[in-house]
Amino acid sequence: MPHPLIALVLSMTSTLGAAPSPELTVRYEPAGSPRAEQARKLLKESDALKTGIKLPRPVKVVARDCDEASATWDGDERRITICYSLVDKVRRTLTGISQTEEADKRTTAARVDAALTVLFHHQLGHALGAMNGRPDSEGQADQLAALTLAADAPKRVVRAAEARHLLAGHAGIGHLSGLEASATFACLLYGADPAKHAGIAKGGWVPAERAPFCAGEYNRAKSALGTMVVKAGA
Ligand SMILES: [Zn+2]
Fold it and tell me: DSSP string spanning 38-54?
């Protein structure tokens, strides 16, 4: 019999649809400036810091003000930190791009939400790799991020590839900068379901000549790392 309070929390979370993973706790620290407060609200309302992926050990996610615009995984504390200044940078960068493209507000908002989701899943990838005793690498974190994203937020997958592509040419966006890493990430997401995620190839976020090989790339990532990516309750 669970403790009455835990039972209450469990019954409350189960009404929210996709129940958050019980091992993940998310805390939003107070923001110290109007701009950080805007980022805090944006991050909270984006639902980006959610996962239904089973974690081998409890993980804390802390959103807060920091000196640097960063997102990090701390293995000793088992803590993912997302800085409001990085959230703000993502928002400003994507808003700027959307204005240049004359994209509407809805598109811009969807891109920002998707980018924040990628930001979190990339750190979750670092966390999963480390907690499973794997040597850490950016490539592995991205592979795990693609697997968790496809499992967790299938409706955000196409936007996620787009947002990462748009950010790829901008320096200092956490670990999301870089065209090559962005193309590989897009390829994995496209390869997860080439029919459903056709928009990724159409958008050109994965190079056309690479697209036919993406299902293979995804399947290789899944065989290598898929045992770490299990939905809670599955
Ligand atoms: Zn990274």
Answer: HHHHHHHHHT-S---B-
**Which chain residues have CB less than 5 Å from ligand 1, an ion?**
138, 141, 175
Yes or no: say if 196 and 189 are a contact pair by the CB < 8 Å rule: no
Ligand 1 centroid to residue 104 C-alpha, Å: 30
Q: Rounded to the nearest whole angstrom, what is the distance from the C-alpha of residue 138 to the centroid of ligand 1?
A: 5
Q: Give pLDDT tens digits for 66-95.
A: 999 999 999 999 999 999 999 999 999 999
Element of type H or E holding 73: strand 71-74
Helix (H) / strand (E) element for 28: namely strand 24-28
- Output the CA 127–ligand 1 centroid distance in Å: 10
Distance CA 65, CA 86 (A): 9
